[in-house]
Amino acid sequence: MAQAIGKRSVLPHASHSARWRALLREMWKHRVDYLFISPFFIVFLVFGIYPMLWGLRLSLSRWAGGQRTMEWVGLNNYIGLLTSDPLLGKAFLNTMMLLGWILPSGLAFALIVAVMLNARRLRGRGLFRTLYFLPFVTSGVIVAIVFSQFLDKNYGWVNLLLGKVGIPPVPWLVEAIPAQISVTLLLHWMGSGTNILIFLGALQAIDRELYEAAEIDGANAAQSFFRITVPMLRPVLLFMVITATIGLINLYAQVKLLTNGGPQNNTYTMFMRMMDLIAGNRFGEGAALGFIMGAIILVITFVQLRLLRSWWTVEGNLRS
Amino acid sequence: MLKNTRPISRRRFLQAAALGATGALAACAAPVAQPPAQPMQPNEAPAASSELTGELIFWGHADHPIYDAGQAFMKKHPGVSFTQVEITDERTTKVEAALAAGEGAPDLNWLEANEVQLYGRRGVLLDVTDVVKQYEKELVPAKTAEALVNGRYYGMPGDITPNTLWLRPDILEKAGVSVQDFKYEDFLTAARTVKEKANSSLYVFGADGGGQSSLMFQCPFYALGGNVSDASGEEILFDQGDAAVRAVTYAKMAWDAGAGLDVGWFSPPYWAAIKEGQLGGTYSPPWMRGFFETEVKTPETGQGKWKSVILPAYEGGEKHRTNVWGGATLCSYTQTKVPDLVRKFMEFTFATMEGAQVTADWGIVPPYLPWLTTKLRDVKQTLFSDQTWTDTLNEALSLMREDYYRTPAYGLSGIAGGGPLYDKYFIPMMKGELDIEAGVKQWADDLRAENKKLLESLK
After folding, report:
1. pLDDT, average across residues B232-260
2. B190 CB contacts (<8 Å, ≥6 apart)?
3. Do B202 and B261 belong together in one domain?
4. Do the domain assignments include residue B385?
5. Is the pLDDT of residue B84 over 80?
């Protein structure tokens, strides 16, 4: 490899074909190594790149499914969805609302619990960690079904318990706001374990000397948290914000099972709309919506990156 | 031993490993030529015997009448293997994947009427016109029409579902109400009384309006001559005439009465309410009997205590006091490798006395007239107090419409039990948040736009 690079640097104006030949020679020389790293790339090409390109073509086509050929329709699927779909607007608003609420509250909750679990004098940390992580290893489908039983307006345990303390039954799954709260509860319950573990890992990696130095300088607990802990968690926080955003925009199974998008489509998400389009034989529009969702994720992620970066200085301090 | 082994270079080791892996993969691959001892597929001419052989794969939910038919078919033809794969929610996705791949779809599937129309139009269903034509005069016309697409049959008419009203006379008696031929308004009055005095509901009306609750709209819509679309599925008729507006109004009356059972359909509280007598009545299709009998197993939970009567009468809808809800058709796909065996199975299941009996014993109503006219009363059942329920069923059969079209647009509308368009309009109208006439109009407009796109996708 070094030889080839050397040649290139010696002959900066070498012809295009000569450079290709050199590259191919180099690859041939390391053919066995390439052979052994090839499974990942083959799988990625077959199950990652190819479906994505196929999906892109589908989003620009009309297709009746099965073995029928696709008919090119250009951007019609995208335009139709964005201008005249009777349900996409509501689905978009619901998804954004759930994202806007669940993302900060979920991360804040996980961070608070992680900080508590990170306390030096805490006993049974392993037990707590296991308990918080348990929901993650439980089947989402089962959890959603159990939640729907717990939250049933007339027969659910939650209302039964509320009734014991004199609180009237809450229509958890049949009114808009309570249903959105129910979805939030379910997702927090399922997702917090992983978030707590990741935060805990990051917290334990922070050098204790930083806190000791801050203490000597007279910093109180809150100052230590905001001036040391939060900035030091920035890479982890960025990672979690981005992955959680992707997960929430692709929210489907839990909502489908808990509320089926109801009541009155108040928990109907973009992913559910996409699935309905596909189930309704509108594959091209379904694919187009998939790419629209991908674009939304890219835009939101970009904004999040810019915002999170701008909130901290290069030194890792919060901007006042 | 290791000491005597010759050292091997890294490169040689990797080459040998790659060679080994290639060999292993080659060994796993399917043989190019079939060994001569392979059994012959049933669609090929059997050499010596006419006995059927082959394998049938069926996709369906647990506790299924077609499973029972499969067992009976295997008993009759020991050379046939029938396997049911329990698939429910993800069925459509899996079928689509198989259709795109060109293989992997089941040999038999139990499709709703609108699905038969959709897949039939797409040309992916096995054309079974020859089988259905052979028995056309012996099958209930309203049901055969559902399998007909552009003059060809794409499924064996399966379950006819004339809806009736199921009641628990013992519960009604507690409230001083007698089982009778109800007018709708009288029925609601009775429902309020039973709710008040016996803490039991005579209909299901969950706050989400889905599943069985939709019957409170569907039944008057059917009785009053409503249709989501025309027979071709191209013109939306939902807001034509006053059937939809009146049906929503009737449903709202039931909603406002507050006497319905407010539970999710088929949820544990639903079954608990039935077993505890909190559901003293329900609008119901016959196939519900199969599910009821699985749950209601003792007299204490209502076994043998139910009675079936004709649905309440809606003014102007007396001629069709029933409705069709669910009631699937037995279909196969063009990609099946055993089309002849599939046809034989369809014929056995819904065009022979034996097959019809097996499916009817489960709980559905087969459309085979020779069986319907002679054996309906012999059906084994444990739910109803006597066999007069079959008389009610026969009466409901005579009240069925032949001009009720369950096209793909019917599926889109969501009136069969829920869907985003239904959710968008139905409950807001129930709650009074949306004017009924305006709501029906908007619902129909959305439906037109959606149906247009669906039809375009089929071109």
Report:
1. 97
2. B172, B177, B182, B202
3. yes
4. no
5. yes
Beta-carbon separation of A264 and B427 below 8 A: yes
| B168/B218 same-domain check | yes
In chain A, the residue whose alpha carbon lies closest to the alpha carbon of B433 is: A264
Beta carbons of A148 and B264 less than 8 Å apart: yes
Which of A5-14, A285-294, B234-243 has the weakest average pLDDT? A5-14
Measured between alpha carbons, how far is B50 from B41 in angstroms, rounded to an integer? 12
Instruction: Give the gap in angstroms from C-alpha B90 to the nearest C-alpha of chain A.
Output: 10
Residue A163 identity: G
∠ Cα B1 B3 B9 (to 5°): 115
**pLDDT tens digits, residue range A255-309?**
988 998 988 999 999 999 999 999 888 999 999 999 999 999 999 999 988 887 7
Flag whether residue B210 sits within 8 Å of chain A, measured between CB atoms: yes
Query: B105 with B245, same domain?
Result: no
Give the list of residues 6+ apart from residue B279 with CB closer than 8 angstroms, or none: B168, B200, B201, B204, B261, B270, B273
Whose tokens are 């997960």? That residue is: A247
- Classify residue B278: in a domain, yes or no: yes
- Whether residue B280 sits in one domain with residue B203: yes
Contact criterion met (CB < 8 Å) for B262 and A154: yes
Query: Which DSSP string do the residues of A197-224 spell out, in sequence order?
Result: HHHHHHHHTS-HHHHHHHHHTT--HHHH
Nearest to A86 among B18, B208, B446 (CB): B446
pLDDT digits (tens, 9 = 90+) for A130-139: 888 888 788 8
Same domain as B415, residue B315: yes
Q: What is the pLDDT of residue B268?
A: 84
Tell me the residue type at B100.
Answer: A
Identity (one letter) of the amino acid at B19? Answer: L
What is the Cα–Cα distance from A51 to A86, expressed in whole angstroms?
A: 28
pTM of the predicted model over 0.80: yes
- Assess whether B66 and B98 both reside in one domain: yes
Structural domain contains residue B75 = yes
ipTM: 0.77
Q: Could you read off the pLDDT of B362-405 as tens digits, one per residue?
A: 989 999 999 998 998 888 899 999 989 999 999 999 999 989 99
Residue A263 to residue B267, Cβ atoms within 8 A: no
Answer left, alpha or beta for residue B113, where phi above 0 means left and psi between -120 and 50 means alpha. Answer: alpha
Q: Are residues B293 and B418 in the same domain?
A: yes
Q: How far apart are CA B443 and CA B426, in angstroms?
A: 9
Looking up residue B371, the CATH number of its domain turns out to be 3.40.190.10
Question: Per the structure, how many domains does chain B have?
Answer: 2
Q: Residue B2: inside a domain, yes or no?
A: no
Query: What is the CB neighbour count within 10 angstroms for residue B355?
Result: 23
In the predicted structure, residue B95 carries a pLDDT above the cut 60: yes
Residue B50 pLDDT level (bands cut at 50, 70, 90): low
Mean pLDDT of A8-31: 80
Could you list the residue range(s) of the whole structural domain that residue B352 is in?
10-161+326-380
Co-location of B360 and B282 in the same domain: no
Contact B453 A282 (CB under 8 A): yes
Q: Specify the higher pLDDT residue, A6 or B360.
A: B360
